[in-house]
Hints:
Number of helices of chain B: 7
Largest sheet of chain A: none
Radius of gyration of chain A: 18 Å
Shape of chain B: elongated
Number of helices of chain A: 7
Mean pLDDT of chain A: 90
Distance between the termini of chain A: 19 Å
Order of helices and strands of chain A: HHHHHHH
Largest sheet of chain B: none
Strand content of chain B: under 5%
Low-confidence stretches of chain A: none
Distance between the termini of chain B: 28 Å
Oligomer: heterodimer
Helix content of chain A: over 70%
Number of domains of chain B: 1
Radius of gyration of chain B: 18 Å
Order of helices and strands of chain B: HHHHHHH
Amino acid sequence: MSLLLDFAQVLYDSPIGTDIRESQFLYPLIEAAHLLGLAVSSGLIVLTDLRLLGLFMKDVPVADILHQLRYWVIGGFIGTFVSGGFLFWAEAATIIENPAFIVKILFVVLGCANALWFEFRWGRSVTQWGEQKALPTAVKYAGLASLTLWTIVIISSRFIPYLTQNQT
Amino acid sequence: MTTFDLLHWLQDSAIGLFVRKSDHLVGAAIQVFHIVGLILLLTVVLLVTLRLFGQGLRRQSLRDITKATTPIFWLGYGFTVCSGILMFVGNAVIYAANPAFQYKMALFLVASLIQLLLFAKVLSTEILPHGFIKSAAFLSFTLWVVVGLAGRAIGFI
């Protein structure tokens, strides 16, 4: 654990971390990119989840939604991760002990695990089950889990600045 | 009654006092709604814009996409507007004087008008030339992003 804290401190004190933190424009702009990436990745995932739950574009086969949105979702995620990485770089030493941030990272991991499980267990065979009127129950649960996990990620993210301890 | 009086009256109203005097976690909860709303709204505009440019859900018709996403757009819009009003009423005097807030509101009105005039009616019936609709959709997406940026800037000015 102290190794992790030391590493966070090194990042925090590094020129790039300090530059982002102290720049008047850089930090808000990276935050904006983070939000935009979120609208692309999480937003499209929410729509996909709603489809799995039968609440959005019910008449469109699931495969159509998954395949056509895939690269946009992945692209959005890369944007969110990269911008999030830079934000972490700038705030590492303080944010690493922030309870909201810890919860957030935990749920990011769970969200990714759920997405990967879905991809390998169901996503690959979507053409076999995706056109049925009633989708397999496990698929609906995966959609509900995804919706819940990413919502918690967004909620805990918004609480980060409210639970920040000032660096002493 | 001047605008200044009105702003003071707003923020000293029961709702204004509730927002301002509450625990800061209440403020955070209001902001969660603001951001979730913005994400929903941006995603819908993105999906429609992508479709117009032949990307994203290109096997579905524009009409089907707008029909399925319009309720989600207004849900997101409702979230941002309601939470935004609560935040504004809590600190009306400070917000009204903030240049980023003023720009944001002006852009928000333009973006809302475009949404109402173009997306709600014309887009689904496809009367206008495709090129015009494409540029309007692109402009609309950009405007909503800038509204978000201006909103983020409020706290930094």
